């Protein structure tokens, strides 16, 4: 039996149907997470500029995710599109949090 660590229950408690995904090992961990979320009926935005993989060739994984209905996006497009953030948080507070806390190592 596959162990899920309660992630599915935690996502259900959020009551959101749209998720933005960033992560490491695009062709393994991110791929499986995204496919699982799509299978559960979530709308998934893949933040292409927030992905990492030790394998330089992740095109097959990206194609597989996009074929499954994943929407290509970027971190910048998410933080600049406040209606999406409002939908995610129920308010525009998330937008302020994203803009006030630059990522570690960023030049902002």
Q: What this model shows, in words?
A:
The protein has one domain: 3-Layer(aba) Sandwich (Rossmann fold). Helix content is 49%, strand content 19%. The protein has 6 helices and 3 strands; from the N terminus they run H-E-H-E-H-E-H-H-H. A 3-stranded parallel beta sheet has the order 1-2-3.
Radius of gyration (Å): 15 Å
Name of the CATH first level: Alpha Beta
How far is it from the N-terminal to the C-terminal residue, by CA?
Answer: 45 Å
- The total of beta strands comes to 3
Uncertain runs are 89-108
pLDDT average, as an integer?
79
Order of helices and strands: HEHEHEHHH
Please identify the structural class as seen in this structure.
alpha/beta
Annotated CATH topology: Rossmann fold
Question: Share of helix among residues?
Answer: 40-55%
Strand content is 15-25%
CATH architecture: 3-Layer(aba) Sandwich
Sheet with the most strands: spatial strand order: 1-2-3
Briefly characterize the structure.
The chain is of the alpha/beta class. The chain is built from six helices and three strands; from the N terminus they run αβαβαβααα.
Helix and strand arrangement:
Layout: H1 7-14, E1 18-24, H2 26-39, E2 43-52, H3 59-67, E3 71-73, H4 75-80, H5 82-89, H6 93-100
Parallel strand pairs: 1-2, 2-3
Helix pairs in contact: 2-3
List keywords for this structure.
6 helices, 3-stranded parallel sheet, 108 residues, alpha/beta, disordered C terminus, Rossmann fold
């Amino acid at each position: 039996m596959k162990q899920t660590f309660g992630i599915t229950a935690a996502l259900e408690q959020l009551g959101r149907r749209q998720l933005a995904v960033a992560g490491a090992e695009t062709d393994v961990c991110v791929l499986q997470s995204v496919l699982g979320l799509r299978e559960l009926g979530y709308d998934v935005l893949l933040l292409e500029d927030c992905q990492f993989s030790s394998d330089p060739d992740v095109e097959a994984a990206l194609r597989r995710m996009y074929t499954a209905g994943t929407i290509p996006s970027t971190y910048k497009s998410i933080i600049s599109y406040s209606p999406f953030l409002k939908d995610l948080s129920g308010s525009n507070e998330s937008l302020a949090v994203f803009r006030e806390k630059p990522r570690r190592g960023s030049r902002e």
